[in-house]
Amino acid sequence: MAFASSINCVGSTSPQQCGLRQSGDPHFCRFNRSKVSRHEKRARTGSQAMVVRSVFVSPEIEFSKPDWKKHFQEDFDKRFNLPHLRDILDIEPRPTTFSLKRRGPINNGNGAPINGWNGYVNDDDRALLKVIKFASPNSAGAECIDPDCEWVEQWVHRAGPRQQIYFEPEAVKAGIVTCGGLCPGLNDVIRQIVLTLEKYGVKNIVGIPFGYRGFFEKGLSEILLSRQVVENINLAGGSLLGVSRGGAEISEIVDSIQARGIDMLFVLGGNGTHAGANAIHNECRKRKLKVSVVCVPKTIDNDIQLMDKTFGFDTAVEAAQRAINSAYIEAQSAYHGIGLVKLMGRSSGFIAMHASLASGQTDVCLIPEVPFTLEGPSGVLQHLEHLIKSKGFAVVCVAEGAGQELLQKSNATDASGNVVLSDIGVHLQQQIKRHFKEVGVHADVKYIDPTYMVRAVRANASDAILCTVLGQNAVHGAFAGFSGITTGICNTHYVYLPIPEVIRSPRLVNPNSRMWHRCLTSTGQPDFL
Ligand SMILES: Nc1ncnc2c1ncn2[C@@H]1O[C@H](COP(=O)(O)OP(=O)(O)O)[C@@H](O)[C@H]1O
Ligand SMILES: O=P(O)(O)OC[C@H]1O[C@](O)(COP(=O)(O)O)[C@@H](O)[C@@H]1O
Ligand SMILES: [Mg+2]
């Protein structure tokens, strides 16, 4: 199948770069050979007609048929439809208790707005997911649906308060849980969820300690939450509730949800946490429980699909940039100094790329999505030698998941099943020292690993705002009766998305994107291949 391998993602050479590492989904960014005749023709004539997809496209869509767009859109609407408690339960809504006006009634008691004023989101409101119309699959950063990159509208559900709600606030017990690793802004989101729940009139709010484990591990008890408890928690990093990996026993968790009488569960976490939340949602459905499971994506790596960014990412970049700045000062002040900074990014190099761009002080940025060699005339070490000889110092920024193929694999996994990576930072440090010793050139290598310092800081202003909106929207989503959804910012608008769509694969830096090209322009680095 020479053809299939020739039309993988733009600029990618491995399945990981197509988002296949976790999803194993062969359709994520590869066309079905038998159904793409025009594309095939182009590929065979040798042009660079390779296409990156921003969304999954069902293998059933036949691009050779004139009505493929209609089928795509029907399929898209079906997949992005939000699961609702009504799907399994015979329930009626009631007018909301969430008031948008300070004084006086906002509706006449049955939900109809007074004087035509209406500050609520309509269930039929939609936001456009993608706004660039690419002229060809070869346009920089093109994300296409079909081989010819035609314009296709992709509408997703708008987030926000609804006029009708599906819970009696006074009777609601709400739970909040934070899973995975830390991320700046967790406390901001917890705080906003609590404040918004109280605004609806909810009185029974609890935190589940230390992630999913808190549901069933002995000795861990619920933390009562109220405005008073959460008032100042946003002033510190970390999570008031604690976090953990592993321990996602779905049926035990749902038993525990039932035993505790939880009606709404707010789950803050990354890809793994979302998979767990979706499983909890499905188990609740199976048991016909009136439980709303709503996620807020938390990942410092910024690796959740479809979203502009996740909370904490801006803050992480700011903190990472300070580490790069220190490496720069150290390198510049030393005779033949080389500053080396390792940043987080298990499979996605967003922090390394953005921190390099923000600082403007990086000469070499290495990320998991872009393969590189260390040795040889086009290798990283030769380039560093050139930098030392030409400008006297150099700064390297590497993401933890970069260059794993150069290292010995440990085969170890953490409690959540994530592969424990080999340390590329330490490896680079050793290899740089060895190389310069071998070529007889003095080099003073200063290695900085600020990863946990980056993760532990409190959210900056822009993240604090993002956390506020996402926390509030999570509560609005639960009261609206949705379950199995997550909240996010897509193309500057706030939306709800069904969980499976955002965790098909981790979001990766597109090596053909303008942003990666800007990073290369800024660092001045060559291809290391
Ligand atoms: N596929 C999965 N199904 C159910 N639960 C999962 C899955 N993957 C991870 N989890 C659980 O989600 C939690 C967080 O996962 P982890 O990968 O550590 O962090 P993150 O959610 O940030 O990716 C852990 O408790 C883990 O056991
Ligand atoms: O040492 P820990 O706590 O397992 O965290 C390390 C990992 O956390 C991450 O920041 C990702 O965390 P999440 O999986 O929670 O999103 C990775 O970049 C890093 O590999
Ligand atoms: Mg994860």
From TrEMBL:
One of its GO terms (biological process) is fructose 6-phosphate metabolic process. Keywords: Allosteric enzyme, ATP-binding, Cytoplasm, Glycolysis, Kinase, Magnesium, Metal-binding, Nucleotide-binding, Transferase. The active site is at 301 (proton acceptor). It catalyses: beta-D-fructose 6-phosphate + ATP = beta-D-fructose 1,6-bisphosphate + ADP + H(+). The keyword Transferase applies. It comes from the Eukaryota. GO terms for cellular component: cytoplasm. Catalyzes the phosphorylation of D-fructose 6-phosphate to fructose 1,6-bisphosphate by ATP, the first committing step of glycolysis. The record marks 272 as: Important for substrate specificity. One of its GO terms (molecular function) is ATP binding. InterPro entries: ATP_PFK, PFKA, Phosphofructokinase_dom, PKF_sf, PyroP-dep_PFK_TP0108. The keyword Chaperone does not apply. Its cofactor is Mg(2+). Homotetramer. Signal peptide: none annotated. ATP binds at residues 181, 245-246, 270-273. PANTHER family: ATP-DEPENDENT 6-PHOSPHOFRUCTOKINASE 1. Mg(2+) binds at residue 271. Substrate binds at residues 299-301, 344-346, 400, 452-455. This is ATP-dependent 6-phosphofructokinase. It is found in: Cytoplasm. Residues 174-476 form the Phosphofructokinase domain. It comes from Ananas comosus (Pineapple).
